[in-house]
Amino acid sequence: MKDMIIVNPGLHTTVQDKGRWGYQEFGMPVTGAMDDYSIRLANILVGNHEYDAVLETTLMGPEIAFNIDAVIAITGANMMPRVNGHIVPMWRSLLIYKGDVLSFSFSKEGTRSCIAIAGGFDIPTVMGSRSTFVRGGIGGFEGRILKKGDELSVRESNAVLQQIANRIIPQKYIPDYKESCRIRTVLGPQDDCFTEESIDKFFGSEYHVTNEADRMGYRLEGPALEHKNGADIISDGINLGSIQIPGHGMPIVMMADRQTTGGYTKIATVISTDIPLMAQLKPGNKVRFERIDLQEAHRLLREYEDKISAIKSYVSSNQLEPGKSKYFSVKVGGTSYEVMVEELK
Amino acid sequence: MYEKGRYLISGDKGLVIEFGNEISEAVNKKVRNLYLAVKKSQTAGIFEMIPTYRSLLIQYNPIEIEIDRLKEKLMEIEEALDSIDIPKPRILEIPTIYGDEFGEDLDFVAEHNGISKKEVINIHSSVDYLIYMLGFTPGFPYLGGMSEKIAAPRLKTPRTKIPAGSVGIAGKQTGIYPIESPGGWQLIGRTPLKLYDPKSETPIILQAGDYIRFKPIDRYEYEDINVLVDKNRYEIKIVME
Q: Which of A342, A315, A324, A340 is nearest to A93 (CA)?
């Protein structure tokens, strides 16, 4: 029997890493984890390389039986992870024992969680990446979403498990996924194809995420935008976060599994540091786009990278005292809550 | 064609250099030349490029290279484009078996244009097609240059499954399906080459800016090449001129 058994795959669970970079000129989609922040923090917690492969789950997480002792971390959307039925904290490295079962509920906040495991998944790379490209049937676990009965192997971690367990992310770094959010963009590359009014409308209106929102792109609905001379251009390159406006005037935000080229006008591009927020939106959520200049976007990116470095050094030097946590059942207004308290080392 | 490249912002990690607003070999050649020159320059901070019909999308890490510096550098390269040595595009030979079960619509294409099957094959295989770009699916070439004498409308009802390697015609375009997929092109033949093989060292053989030439082969040659391709021992022929 392998190290991890998928008892229940959840809605859409795939193996993802940084993505299959280097082949876009050949028409190969990049893929990779939708939420850059969550994959990196999950891996940092378990002592892996920041972009080691993780399991990316969507809305409803999987149920996984462990056949080994391991250290895992869960970041991103809150799907109420449990080990052997007990709620366990997210944004923290957790010690798992052979025989334990990890399970999830439907997401309360956010859309995608990352599950990292110390040592990383033992999965071959295809074209330099372990990311699953589902439409192309390659990468990850047999090129597809996980299904019941799949067995995954884990590479042995170099670390002593006890020493990397119970590491935490400080509260201030844990994102808060809201029903409506503000997404920052830089204008272009085809903003000149739109009327002034349409550009004002784009930044002045609220859009909602439709049901057609997946790893490839998010179709939004709201006030329709008008083109000066039609929606079609000679196909050109598409970037992560490109916001296409086809003839119907509704935005499509291009995400991890996006095609590499396309023939629709692109009014603006979501900035790199807001892609993780975008990735956590679900159908019905509201978005307002904001326009910032390129210099500001680059400043935010440097700030984001500094933040991740700060988290990394915090994580490697702070650990909770094991065994000092206590669970309580609390009833408030007739509803039962499970509460855990613990002290810092 | 524009006098100078237009620099467009494609997010905080992307810069597009656009050379024209038309599909033409001259504009596409500029794209290819800039792509090769930038590659040669080994500019730190540029991590990937996507050449398309009339523009080049450059993906860069702004922490490694400041945008102003990057633009400066690219403009320098653009300025010097005409004076640097750029290798001629390759002409890749695509062995193709036409008709019968390999190209079920060859009859239709011939009838539609009022010519014989042989003539369709001759016309189709007598031109070198420019690969303007790759996209749509991994390894799918957007080709230009097909004769209107063999143009044919798409199928009214697309096929649900078209084998990898199928060569088809849709309107005034010709193309090759790199992977098995649904599609509405009129199929006239098939190549035994694997245009997309994720396990290979060169997963995708074709490259934007190259040309391809279809070479008619018979059933025996098809089988022979097929065997070599399966053993990973077939070397694509590059036409020397």
A: A315
